[in-house]
Amino acid sequence: MEKFRELDHWLSKHRFLTGDNLNYTDFLLFETLNNHNACMPDLLEPFVNLQRFHKEVMSQAGVKEFVTSERNPSAICSPLATWKAGTV
Predict the structure, then answer these.
(1) Which domain of life is it from (predicted)?
(2) pLDDT at 85 over 70
(3) Which one, out of 8, 43, 72, 82, has a CA that is 20 to 30 A from the CA of 30?
(4) What angle do CA 78, 82, 85 make, to 5 degrees?
């Protein structure tokens, strides 16, 4: 959670990870947040800037269309991976 707090603080002063322009690192964080959200839907609740960031990336042209399409892999991990908490 500490890293999420640090990222949230950083994003309180910056639109994206490296400033005001979207780049590939933002998509890496976006995907990580999506994966965490699949396992723990309330995880971002205390982090308003991470929520804003996620919404802003999702609103970029083509992102929502891809995320909700059949082309987006539904599995977070390999089918051979296991997670003791259950199936994702």
Answers:
(1) Eukaryota
(2) no
(3) 82
(4) 130
10 Å Cβ neighbour count for 50? 22
What are the structural domains, with CATH classification, of the chain?
2-67 (1.20.1050.10)
- CB-CB contact of 31 with 40 (8 Å): no
Report which of 47, 12, 19, 21 is spatially closest to residue 32, judged by C-alpha positions.
47
Q: Which residues of 31-40 are buried (b: 16+ CB within 10 A; e: fewer)?
A: eebeeeeeee
Render pLDDT for 33-60 as a digit per residue (tens, 0 to 9). Answer: 988 888 888 999 999 999 999 999 999 9
Nearest to 34 by CA among 61, 62, 73: 73
Q: How many CB atoms lie within 10 A of CB 85?
A: 8
Cα–Cα distance measured from residue 37 to residue 39, given in angstroms and rounded to the nearest whole number: 5
